[in-house]
Amino acid sequence: MATVLDRIIAATREEVARRQAATPLSAIDATARLQPPPRGFAAALTRKAADGHALIAEIKKASPSKGLIREDFDPPAHARAYEAGGAACLSVLTDKPFFQGDEAYLVAAREACSLPAIRKDFMVDPWQVAEARAIGADAILIIVAALDDGAMAEIEAAAIDHAMDVLVEVHDDAELDRALRLHSRLIGVNNRDLRDFTVDLGRTEALAQRMPEGTEIVAESGLSTKADLDRLAQAGIHRFLVGETLMRQADVAEATRRLLIGA
Ligand SMILES: O=C(O)c1ccccc1NCC(=O)[C@H](O)[C@H](O)COP(=O)(O)O
After folding, report:
1. Which residues line ligand 1 (CB under 6 A)?
2. The domain containing residue 139 runs over which residues?
3. Cα-based torsion angle of the residue sequence 188, 138, 95, 199 in order, rounded to the nearest 10 degrees
4. From CA 109, how far away is CA 138, in angstroms rounded?
5. pLDDT band at 203, cuts 50/70/90?
6. CATH number for the domain including 43?
7. Residue 194 CA to ligand 1 centre (angstroms)
8. Which of 2, 15, 75, 116 is least surrounded by CB atoms within 10 angstroms?
9. Relative to the CA of 244, which ligand 1 atom is closest?
10. pLDDT tens, residue by residue, 95-124
C-alpha cells in the first residue's frame, strides 16, 4: 500500500513537471544566480551549537499527521519571533497540497529576519534546487527514503553548484548508509516514522552512535520541551528541528526562548 510519503512524492513529480514545462531549467537557473549569496545555514547552526542548543525553527501551517496547526498563520511574524527567541535558522514548508505551504512564505519569512532558511519540501529534481535558490533559500532538504542514489547525488550536486547547504534526512540504518555516500555531513534523523507517524526520540540517539566523526546531527520531529533537547544533548546532539510545538504557542518568541534555555 502506498505510504503518505509515496503519495507526496508522486504529487510532487507531477507538479514539478508542470512547472518545468512553464519555466525551463536555464531560466530558473539564471534567476537563481542573480540572488545575493546564501546566508550560511550549516555555519549558523555550528555557531549556536558551540555554546548551547542550535535550533532550526519551522514555519509550518499544517501537516498530513496533524491537519491544520495554526489558524493565524503569519510567516514574517513567526520568523521575527523565532529570531528574537534565539533560533539559529528557519525551516519553511513550501509544499502546498499536503502542508498548505507556499514559496511566498519562504520569501516573506526570510525578508523579515536575518536568519538563513531551508526550503522544506520534497526534492525530486535538480530543477527544484534552482527554484529554491531563485526564491532565496539558503539550504535544501534531501529525504533519503524518497530518492534513489543517482537522484540524491544529482540534487546534492545542484545544491553545491548554487553554494547551498544540504540537510540529508534519514530514519534508519540503511538510509544512513546511503546518506553517508553523499558529501553533506549535515544529517537529520527524523524521529517520526512517515509510514504510521509514530515518534520515537530514541531514533536519533540510536543512529547518532553510528555517525562518523565530524557529522553534524540534527534531531528532527516530535521535540516539545527543553528536557527533550537536554536528553539528546547527553548523546552529543546539539542541533534540533522543531515545528508544531512552537507553531501552536500564542507567544512564539517566548516559547522559543523557553525551549532553548528554560523558564
Ligand atoms: O509532519 C508530518 O506530518 C510529516 C508527514 C509526512 C512527511 C513529512 C512530515 N513532516 C516534515 C517534517 O520534517 C517536520 O515538519 C519537522 O521535522 C518538524 O516536526 P515537528 O516538530 O514534529 O512539527
Report:
1. 4-5, 58, 60, 63-65, 190, 194, 220-223, 241-245
2. 4-261
3. 20
4. 13
5. very high
6. 3.20.20.70
7. 9
8. 2
9. 23
10. 999 999 999 999 999 999 999 999 999 999
Q: Which of 103, 169, 175, 205 is catalytic?
A: 169
Instruction: Express each pLDDT in 62-93 by its tens digit.
Output: 999 899 999 999 999 999 999 999 999 999 99
- Active-site residue flag, 191: no
Active-site residue (options: 63, 91, 184, 190): 190
Asked whether the CA dihedral 6, 193, 224, 248 is positive or negative, the reply is: positive
Q: Which residue has the cell 509510514?
A: 195
Q: In this predicted complex, what is the ipTM? A: 0.97
Contacts of 206 (CB under 8 A, 6+ apart): none
Q: Is 218 helix (H, G, I), strand (E, B) or coil?
A: strand
Confidence (pLDDT) at 259: 98
Q: Is residue 263's pLDDT more than 80?
A: no
| The residue count for the chain | 263
